[in-house]
Each structure stands twice: as structure tokens, then as C-alpha cells.
Amino acid sequence: MAEERRFRSASGVPITLRRRQHSASCRELAVRGPRLQLRSLSAATSAVWLAAYGLFALSENSMVLSAAIFITLIGLIIYLHFVKIDQESLLVIGSLGIQVTSSYASGKESTVFIEMGQVKDVVINEAIHMQKVIYYLCILLQDPEDPQGISEVVPLFQSSKPRLDCLIEVYKSCQEILERRKTAPQSI
Amino acid sequence: MVLKVFFPSCCSSADSGILIGRWISEQNSAVILAVVHFPFIPVQVKQYLGEVQRVTKVSVSVLGSWSNSKQEKEESLSEFLEDLGTIFCHEPWIQISKEGDSKFWSCSTLQKHSKNPQEEEIILVYYDQRKVMLSHLHPPLDTAGQRTEDASKLSAIFDTVARSQVLFMTDRYDEGPIKLTHWQSDGVEASIIVELLKQASVPACMLLTLLLSLVSGICRSRVLKFWPLSFLWSKLSTCEQLGHRLQHLQVISSSKKAQNQNQLMRKANIFVSLLIDVALGILLMSWLYRKNRIGHLADTLIPVADHVAEELQDLLQWLMGAPAGLKMNRALDQVLGRFFLYHIHLWISYIHLLSPFIEMILWYVGLSACLGLTVALCILSDIIALLTFHIYCFYVYGARLYCLKIYGLSSLWRLFRGKKWNVLRQRVDSCSYDLDQLFIGTLLFTILLFLLPTTALYYLVFTLLRLLVVIVQGLIHLLVDLIDSLPLYSLILRLCRSYRLAAGVKFRVLEQQDGKPLRLLMQINPLSYGGVVQTYRLPTYSCYPRDSWASLCKKLFLGELIYPWKHKGDKQN
Q1: Which is the most buried residue in A161, B78, B86, B461, by most CB within 10 A?
Q2: Does B28 touch chain A (CB under 8 A)?
Q3: Are residues A111 and A97 in the same domain?
């Protein structure tokens, strides 16, 4: 079963949270940001080309125009493939682990899977980001030597930066599954 | 408690039978390796599994039953399969059944000796057996070396499949008591080219080892150890590079098989790197010798050296006048300027003496480019060093003079203040000087101080020139290092067979149906290109940087000689 709710990100941009429950111990939470707008794309392209035409008028060299087209294309490809993240999702499978996926606008997906044995807890933390203080969700990884210690902090939803209300929903869903591994007699 | 069943996707359409694999009790998961079909004799199955266990050291056992019925479920078959559970007693006995072409299978477990009778959840994870068997799981780079047995659960699964290779050797066309289905059950795959290469590699390796032992014997002979020659070899970077490549060849041609993945990848990387290097070198050579370009190069070499010398002479004339409006000490200026001018004159004469032989030398030296592009680049760097030898000499003269002056000044400055440097205690102590000592000290101090700008200017100019040459040589060496250390085979493997280099796994949730177990697909998450380069980088013989920026500036200020790069064999000072 799936449900969708609208929230806002830390900078005010509207985002949607989609929750799917695949089974009793498997949940998927996906935060989707706004898609690439046509008007911002055309604005950027027109600005670059106007500048190129201006340079061409000054220098009478047609290489400037072809260079501008080349730069626009390469820049667009790099932006879509490496910068613009469309959707960030969290797949929690009790007793297997947590999988964090980021999908880029060009379709590329980068995935990290963290085994349940390494996960200590999922918490909401505060951070200073530029001039704001924002809340973010993170996974705390267990230190293999020290049972009380934390070896690494993995922040989630870094590009969409949801606000606290969205984070609380995600936190509650995760904790319902994580609690079960503590009640189980043998560790997984 | 959740039970995880790892099922190979190649067995999805297999006929009914029993499941064999490994049960990992700490993780409550069952890794299924193959399906044994009817008819079989249980004793023979147990015998076969015992043999497999002995050879592979993996505890393979019968885990459960698999029924693939094309029509509706048969009651008698299910009872028969339950009875099998009593013959091959295994806790828990897993029963998977598939009806017709349905994607959703029913999975249940039989626990005879369990204390809590609650229904446990089952997760069915499909995996591609061939890819998991061939893949190598890389631990995260920061914690490598601290991994213990229970740290990574997934590595246990990869390990199980990889070590059970002998199980996958029998296919369905073999005559035997046991009929298995696994990823190779349609026939063992092999490549003729690979087999031929394997056969040919043994004599080739032996021949190469023989040749290399001859060459290294010659290199180590006493003839080459006499002082002028050994000094020359250590200064020329071409010899370092050739020695490095010789080492590489020795690694490849050794007849010992590679023990683990790292060694195998290292050998393969060295082999591909050598191949590409030699190919590029031969390409360069063919380009140089076509249209007699090397002759043209030799013809332009002398005029270029002349031009450099003329520019230096102009520079010295400028310094001897009033450079940048500064007023120099006329006498010292003339002395230094004339000294350096005479030096340049000597250098030009030597170059002109050599000029008839340059073309022939260059022609033969250019032939050594067939040993590799790196060797050609090293030769270029050495030629630049030889041609700018006079700049190096000037830098050394200027630096020594300046260094002497600075030390003299600092010591006399201490005399001014009535202090002295105590060599025994390595500190500054106060000291009472006699009047004549003070008088002479003050005179010398004044002289040195007023001559400082002239010397400092010469030092500055020649240091800048030397740094320019060093930067050019450094760039060439950087390129050589890049070609030497880039793991090309690993990068090509990552591009073409990305499942071989795994950083981890990723799960995809497949279609679900209520009441049926959770279905997941486990895929291999390949290592990133940066991770590949970092893991499989070949070690090189030079380390950058030798000095930090702060110590470099300090050395420049004090006039100490700088050698920007060091080699691993040099002593630390």
C-alpha cells in the first residue's frame, strides 16, 4: 500500500513523501523534489547564447558560437547526470539492512546498502548549513570495536533537505521496523 | 524471527527436487546452491555432499524441497516432500512450491524441535549465481584490515557461492547418480582462446624468465659499479624507469600462480600497462622516423641550445647594467657577470664540438622508444636536464654565494648584539668580544650587507630559471608516473564486466502478493571508478612532494639547494 503527502523542504520548495509498505518488515520511503523546469532551462540557455552573440559581435569569430553551443550541451549533460537529484529513497528491510538510493535526472541511480548489523540507530540531528540551522535524518553506524561507540554518521536526504514534519514521519516509520530487531531474541 | 532464503534465479524453472546449499545459522539464512532432481538415492546424495564438503570446506547440506508443478498442486507430492524432511533431517526444513507460471511462490518451513511455534516471516532473495560467483567483494577502504568474521554478513554469501565451484562442474549431460540444476547445468562454458593462451603462457614465461635473468645478471655485474658510471646511472631517470619496468617483467614472468585476487589483478594490470606502453612507444617511434623527423629534430637542437645561450648572455648583460632600475655594486657585478659569461662561452664551445655527432646519437637513442612511451619521456626529461646543465651550474654558484653571505651576515649580526652561537649546546649565548674583534666584525658586516642586493639578485634570477626547468621536468615525470601506476586492466574490467568488482549489493523489491513471502532481487553494486583506481593502483618509485611548501620557502630564503623530488631509494636526510 502506498500513500503520498506533500511537505516543504528547508528552502521552501515543495516536495512529496511517498510511503510504501511491501511487507511487515519492509518499507520504502521516497522523497521526491521538483523536476527540472522548462523556464529555468530556457533562461539559462538564452543567457549563455546572448553572451555568445555579444562576444561574436565584438570579435567576429564564429568559433565563439560553436563553443557556446558545445558548452551548453556539455553543461546540461553534466548537470543532469551528476548534480540534479530527482528522488531520494530509503528502503528499510528488517533483518537485512537499510538501502539508500539517489536517482538523478538522467536516470542514473547511486545506491548504498548498509547491513543491519552495522546500524546502531536512526536519529534526527541538527546542523548548521550556510546561515540556517536545519534538521536532518541520519543513520548511526556501529563501531566494531566499541559497542557503545559510533564509527560513522550517514546523513540522508541531503539534496532535498525536508523539514522536521516530514522527517518525523520518516523517523517513525523507520523506528517501527528497527524496534523489532531489539525484541527478537537472537541478533540478526 | 525472519528467515532469509537466497535462491538462484537460474533454478526458477527447474523441475521438482530437493534443495542443497548452506545454512548460516547466525544470520538465520539459507543460501541455495543447486536443485537435485528425482530420482535419487538418499545415501548417494549424502555421500556426494560429503565429498563436496571435503573438497570445498563449505558445509553443504540438504536444506529443503522444491516443487514445480505445471498443473494444480498434487497432494501426494507434497506429502512425499514432507517425508523427505525426515530422511534428510535439517532444522528448519524449507519447502518452496511454484504453481504453473505464477511469479508468486509459496514458501513454508517445518520446525520439529522449535520452542516457539509462531509463524516466522520468510524473505525470498533472488540472486544471479554466475555473477555472484565471479564477483569479488571489496571491503570499505577505510576499515580494511579490521574486518572480522562476523562483520560482513554478505561476504559470507559471496564466499559460499565462490568456493562451491566444484559443485557447478557437473552438468545435466553428465552420466551419474545425481542430477543437478545450477547456472552451468546447460553445459560447462569455456573459451578456446583462453585455453590456448593458458597453454602457451607456460613456455613463454620460462623463456622470459631466462632472458630477464641474463639481463639482470649483466646489470649487476661489477663492470657497471665503478664510480663515474654508477653516479651517472643514479642521476639519469631513464635508468630508474628501465629498472622499474624490469621489476614488472619479473613479476609477470614468475611461474608461481597468483594466490589471491589482489595478486592476480596486479599481474594483469602490469601486463596491460606494459603492453599499452610498448604499443604507444612503437607508435611514437614510427611517427618520429617517418619523413626523417628525427633528423630535423637533431638539426634544430643545436640552434635551440645556441638561442638559449644567447638569451642567457642578454640576461647577464642586463644584470650587469642597471636591472629594473636597481643600482648594483659595479665591481662585484662585473666580476660575477664576466664569470658567468665565460662559463656560457665554454658551454657553447662544448656543444659545437658535439654537433656533428648529435644526429647519430639522437637516431640511436630514439630507437629505444620502442621499449615504451615512458622510456621515451624519461629520455626527453634527461635531454632537457643535459641541455640546461649550465642553468643548474649557475643556480648552484649563485645559491652557494648567497648562502655563504646569509650565514656570514647572521653570524656577524649576532656579534653586533654581543652574542655567539654555541655549537656544543646548539643555542645562542652571550659573549664578550675584544675591541679589535668587534671592529673587524663590524667592517665585514657592513661590506656583506651592502653587497647583499647584488648577490641576492643573481640568486633570484638563477633560482627562477632553475625552477622553470624543474617544473617542466616535473610535469614529464608526473605523466610517466601516471602511465606507470594507472590500473588499466581493472578499469576496463569495471567498464565491461562491472559485476566482477563489487563494492556491495543492492536490493530491488519485486512485485508482492499478500500472503506470499517478500520477494527481493539482489544485484551487485559495482565499485566506483575512483575506488577502482585507489584499490588497484600500481606502486611507483617516486614520492611527491619531498618538502612541504613552508620548508621549501625557508630553504629558498636561506639559499640551501633544493631537489624537488626524491626517489624511494634515497637516504633520508
Answers
A1: A161
A2: yes
A3: yes
